[in-house]
Amino acid sequence: MSRLAEGGLIERRKALQFRFDGRTYRGFSGDTLASALLANDVVLVGRSFKYHRPRGIFTAGSDEPNALVELRRGARREPNTKATTVELFDGLEAWSQNRFPSRAFDLLSVNNLLSPFLTAGFYYKSFMWPSSWWEKVYEPWIRRAAGLGRASGEADPDTYEKAHAFCDVLVAGSGPAGLMAALSAGRAGARVILCEEDFLFGGRLLSETYAIADRPAANWAMNAVAELRSLSNVRLMPRTSLVAVYDGNGYAALERVGDHLAIPASHQPRQRLWKIVAGRAVIATGCHERLIAFGGNDVPGVMQASAIRTFLNRHAVVPGRSVSLFTATDNGWRTAADLARAGIGVAAVVDSRRHVNPALVAAARRTGARVFLDAQVVGVRGGKRVRSVEISTDGHNALTVPCDALGVSGGFNPALGLTSHLGARPRWSDAVSAYVPDALPPGMDVAGAARGIFSLSGCLADGARAGAEAGGRRTEVPVAEGECSDLEPFWRTKRSRGKAFVDLQNDVTEGDVIQAAREGFISGEHLKRYTTLGMATDQGKTGAIVGQMVLTALTGRAPEDVAPPIARPPAVPVAIGAYAGLHRGRDFRPTRLTAGHAWAVERGATFTETGQWLRAQWFAREGEKDWLETVSREAAHVRAAAGICDVSTLGKIDIQGRDAGIFLDRIYINSFSTLPVGKARYGVMLREDGFVMDDGTTSRLGEDRYFMTTTTANAGRVMQHLEFCHQVLWPELDVQMISVTEQWAQYAVAGPRSRDALRKVVDRAFDISDAAFPYMAAAGITVCGGIEARLFRISFSGELAYELAVPARYGDALIRRVMDTAADTGLAPYGTEALSVLRIEKGHPAGNELNGQTTAHDLGLGRLMSSKKDFIGRVLAGRQALTAPDRPSLAGFKPVERGKRMRGGAHFFVPGIRIEPDHVEGHMTSVCFSPALGHWIGLGLLKRGPERIGEHLRAYDPVRDEDFLVEVCSPIFVDPEGARLRV
Amino acid sequence: MRITCPYCGERDSEEFSVQGEVAGPRPRPSDYGDADVKAFHAYVHLRANDFGLTREYWYHGNGCRRWLEVSRDTRNHAILGVAMASGAGRR
Q1: Is A247 an interface residue toward B (CB < 8 Å)?
Q2: Which of B2, B37, B88 sits opposite A876 (nearest CB)?
């Protein structure tokens, strides 16, 4: 065990068992998977992406490029999980990735030897021939050899939620700056949300041995958190990463509610995606320590100097028995000091700088470490773990120093990705040799290390400032121990021995950057895409800038001459499930049910989705062999006796006001101000561009009151259109409208015996005889002994028919009552398929014909267009192309060989003419088997269709490989005189 | 994005739907001839599509159902003003 005997923020009384690559280990509560592995001397944790080189743990946070594991098993298996951010739990199971057959012995490490062929752009240059090998040989091989973890391939068994929150001040990060910002704002009474991606608050303070206000930093942090927790206006959100910034002070945060459990609690989601609207935000996300490009900088045991302190101070883990440091900053020296204090041997401190604070040097020498200034690490020896480092002071001769771990500190990258989500670019700061935030989105501030302030006292003061400016008040800044935080940029060792990586996750070497530059990829964006520098799960947080700076130097530019990098959301990987939330499967969108739904279920209906609605498609009876038999029976029954169909899903709009008639005259192509009270009329409305928008029946219920129906699909769009016309175009009209779609349950009762059926429920006071209530009558009535209802004598089927509406709460009772009492009339339910058969037999256009590309003329409804008034769409409906005589227009079709089954979508061609797109005469829009005629019939749009009755055409359907002759006929197949409507 | 509806106050943009740039007044047709077609063609189809300040129609469909005229900067999505669109297509 490489665990210190005492210290650290772990609960030694809570021991946890976990498995890695099948072996059982022990850790403690408070460990991450990474710290627990190191505590068990597991240094080699996986293989690299391309070369299959042994890799270890490089960081202690979400910037980890190497230690990616598959976490959990079965459907919960999650690939590419950073071991450094996984909170250890009892029973955790994880597997290393990219190894074959094992992480210690990997056959594919032969890639490392093939590396001369796998350099930048190898995808673009190799595998070119033979081209047929790409899919069969090359791609499967590459996918096997390169790549990350395996997805489970099963449906995610866990649930995810979305939630909303509002606050005055949102603070991201709970290090010294974040805590001070939250305290300043919270003490002033502002509503504060403090998000921390870790499971403990305190950020960097948890990993340091500094003193703040004469207490250890971690203790100070815990006191600050306790104070924040006591404030009712402050909400603390641990395990929550701020992942995106949106316009209007919107932020997205991912809360890992159950990721630290083997299985989320039964009442809890696995993760919760928050949408937070914040008056102000303080980004205090700290910084990432960056690597240095030198030979062997990827050997397991090479780590960020700051990560070594995290493992040492926070997790009480010994990262090595003898540790060297390679640093360009004072931070490396601090790690040496902490190691020595814990009794761990420091082999060497190598600093690239010529001048280093003498106090640091003296302190290091006192620990017995060898000190090299103006020196470089040029190579690392050791395959699966560091054995020694090679140090050169003159660039030529190297000295070998044995050690088993190497801490690296090349400088710091402020974690400023969130500041550029809306497009703002950071700027280069020579003072700290890093990109720092420049212009910020409205309402956003950045504090502490994220802003390029790397000293503890500076972070505390800057956090207090940001909190006060965000609406808090000045708060006392605690005195922190003074510390050294000097640095000089250092990117690469000139004469490296072995591969020097600038991107550990994507196996991009310094050599790849040099090659890319040689081949002309000298812009940062091109370099990224050519070499994959800075891509994938860590987004190059520790190394991409090193690669970019190598390129900058090669091309003789200064950092400020090149475009700074910007980041896109999300800042850390977010599972698709979290974005979907509860909108999965059937819950993808709301399901709307009609009042008669339960009744239809009891009757054994098969349902179909119509937008959000579920509608009964047909009601199969025992012994029926398929849907076609059922639907034909239902349709035939309507024509022979009576049927009832739930049409509640039609859009219904109540329109009232003195000018309601004028308003409708301007909406519809035909006139409604002339419609008598108590009458219904079929209406067609256009879009302003002249094409048909929707159709439906509108009734006049009173002098100033109309009741409009729309198609199910267009209900919302028509409502929006009416509101636009009224509010924007004609606000002077005295008219008001409201959607009442859900207020009324409506049933179509159709067939020669429909009146007899209705008489069973319509109260006797209302005469519904043909004389008293003729075709197209509409009236308010009562049913079943005084229940308010509306009756319309309208027909979609061409039979004697009515639509009966009752308040939705009576919808279920009404259908049951009608079916009970009207049994002797033969009343039977029919679904939307039979409804469609009946309308095709009558040549009524519906969704397939109202497709947004047809005019009223095309649909045979041109005669309805009034020439006495202006209406929406009238002018542009008169455009030349929309009135051209050879536009495809509605016609009927039947197979010449009557037994043929027709298909929607078939294209029409004149027989004997070559089949090519220019010769298409039109297409079939709707087809059905007509029980009335005993064969298949169709509606279609055909050039000059109405003039070509009797002509034979080819119905050509290359998709289904069908080609036969059809005869053009009138679209009205049944009762063309309409006699059945008026009985 | 947040839109301050004059009727409902500041709301999330998910409650609204956008119709596009404000098109100017709806022309008054005279004889439904070529001149009218030209005027309506401009009204229906021609938009400046400026990179910068635009005026757009937004519909508060999941709120008060009012049509709004929103002044918005397409460069940064900043919303500079929201007013009822009442009569905007007539002025």
Answers
A1: yes
A2: B37
Beta strands in A84-144 (DSSP E): 92-96
Strands (E), A817-887: 828-829
- Judged by a CB distance cut-off of 8 A, whether residue B38 touches chain A is no
Contact A720 B61 (CB under 8 A): yes
A51 burial (CB, 10 Å; 0-12 / 13-18 / 19+) is: buried
DSSP SS3 for A809: helix
Residue A129 has pLDDT above 90, yes or no: no
Candidates B1, B14, B57, B67, partner chain A, best to mutate (most A CBs within 10 A): B67
- Provide the CA A954 distance to its chain's centre, in angstroms: 46
Among A67-76, A106-115, A633-642, A759-768, whose mean pLDDT is lowest? A106-115
| Mutual angle of helices A176-187 and A217-230, in 10-degree steps | 30
Chain-chain contact of A729 with B90 (C-beta, under 8 angstroms): yes
* Reported pTM: 0.90
The two beta strands, A211-212 and B9-12, are unpaired
Of A277, A724, A879, the CB nearest to B2: A277
| Adjacent-strand bridge partners of A704 | none
Residue B80, CA distances (Å) to A555, B6, B69, B72, B77 in order: 44, 13, 11, 6, 9
Q: Is the pLDDT of residue A122 over 70?
A: no
pLDDT at position B91 over 70: no
CA neighbours closer than 13 Å in the CB half-sphere of residue A655 = 30
Q: Would you state the pLDDT for residue A148?
A: 72
Tell me chain B's radius of gyration from C-alpha atoms: 15
B13 shares contact with chain A (CB less than 8 Å):
yes
Overall size of chain A counted in residues = 983
CB contact under 8 A, A248 and B1: yes
Tell me what pLDDT residue A104 has: 77
* Candidates A164, A245, A688, A727, partner chain B, best to mutate (most B CBs within 10 A): A727
**Which residues of chain B does A248 touch, with a Cβ-Cβ cutoff of 8 Å?**
1-2, 13, 77, 79
Q: Average pLDDT in the A417-445 region? A: 94
Residue among A688, A727, A879 whose CB faces B67 most closely: A727
B/e letters for A569-583, b = 16+ CB within 10 Å, e = fewer, are: ebbbbbbebbebbee
Q: Do A724 and B57 touch (CB under 8 A)?
A: yes
Chain A residues whose beta carbon lies within 8 Å of the beta carbon of residue B18: none
Structural contact between residues A956 and A972, judged by C-beta atoms closer than 8 angstroms: no
Question: Could you give the CA distance from residue B73 to residue A775 in angstroms, rounded to a whole number?
Answer: 55
Say whether the ipTM exceeds 0.90: yes
Poorest-pLDDT segment among A295-299, A767-771, A908-912, B84-88: B84-88
In this structure, what DSSP letter does residue A729 have? I
On whether the CB atoms of residues A764 and A781 are closer than 8 A, the answer is no
Query: What average pLDDT does the structure give for chain B?
Result: 94
